[in-house]
Amino acid sequence: MKQSTKIFEKKFIRLRNAIERKGIALIKRALKQQYKQFLERAKQTDFRQWPQLPETISEAPIKQFFEQYYQMSAKLAVISRNNLVNMKAEEEDAIYESIFANKLKSLVAESGQKISTITNTSKDRILKVIQNVLSEGETEGYGIDKMTSQLYREVGKELRGNGFARARAIAQTEIISASNQASQMAVESTGLKYKKYWSTSGLPGIRPSHLDAEQYSAENNGIEPNAVFPNGLLYPGDPAGPPEEVINCRCTILHEVY
Q1: Which of 41, 185, 194, 233 is most buried (most C-beta within 10 Å)?
Q2: What is the structure's pLDDT at 75?
Q3: 227-237 pLDDT, tens per residue?
């Protein structure tokens, strides 16, 4: 791999990290909206019906998060393209950012299972809180007001604790998928012949399969665009990959033209 490619990787990761920080805030807000949906309905519903309410939670906030987050990655596509073709004009950047943003937004339709999984996890966690509150209320002889205030308190604790930990994990996982898909789009848009490299983050806990992918691409001086790495992925964060290969990955796809 060329030294210039490694220098570009640092620039790419700095921008990716900045977008990720915004993504964490976005997914926190989306989860908070889901929890708020439940609490608003619980306030108007007999407590004996609370266990049925999680099923009414909407996927819409999570879908909106995906749409906004993936479109943000268009900036990464632009700098990836510019790295290969040396385009500097701001108006050209704006055109390509718009093109990539629309393409990335279209990928959200392919993320339906992820959106459902995140929403179902919210439902399961809220249901567990409900069951604990109802059990405690029955044991302690709580009245309706006490039961409701306890529900609000415990749902808030869940959101601030496990909920926000989930938010960070979701944002970290999705930025790798979105950014590497953006990078792939960028290089494909040039029409140039290229090879790709898997690059690990250097952080603790790198998966052995990801280290193998990095070594494999280095030993072969890059691999062809449609080839898969030894772990079966087209690139880090490949949505077609199994969860154990994708969740919390911090690797990067890099490209060199020839």
Answers
A1: 233
A2: 93
A3: 999 999 999 99
Cα(250)–Cα(236) distance, rounded to whole angstroms? 8
d(CA 213, CA 215): 5
d(CA 160, CA 164): 6
Position 232, amino acid: G
The total of other beta-carbon atoms located within 10 Å of residue 50's CB is 22
The structural domains of the chain, with segments of one domain joined by +, span 3-191, 193-258
What is the C-alpha to C-alpha distance for residues 114 and 109, in angstroms, rounded to an integer?
10
| Cα distance between residue 32 and residue 92, in whole Å | 38
Find the distance separating the first CA and the last CA of the chain, reported in whole Å.
Answer: 12
Tell me the pLDDT tens digit for each residue of 111-135: 888 899 999 999 999 999 999 999 9
Q: CA 149, CA 195: separation in Å to the nearest integer? A: 59
Phi, psi of 222 (to 5 degrees): 90, 160
Mean per-residue pLDDT of the chain: 92
**Cβ distance 9 to 199 under 8 Å?**
yes
Residues in the chain: 258
What type of residue is 33? Q
Instruction: Give the distance from CA 165 to its chain's centroid.
Output: 13
Q: How far apart are CA 63 and CA 119, in angstroms?
A: 10
Cα distance between residue 58 and residue 114, in whole Å: 14
Token code pair at residue 84:
């290969």
**Angle between helices 90-106 and 74-85 in degrees, nearest 10:** 130
The CA-based angle 207-209-212, given to 5 degrees, is: 115
Instruction: Return the closest-CA partner of residue 167 out of 243, 97, 62, 81.
Output: 62
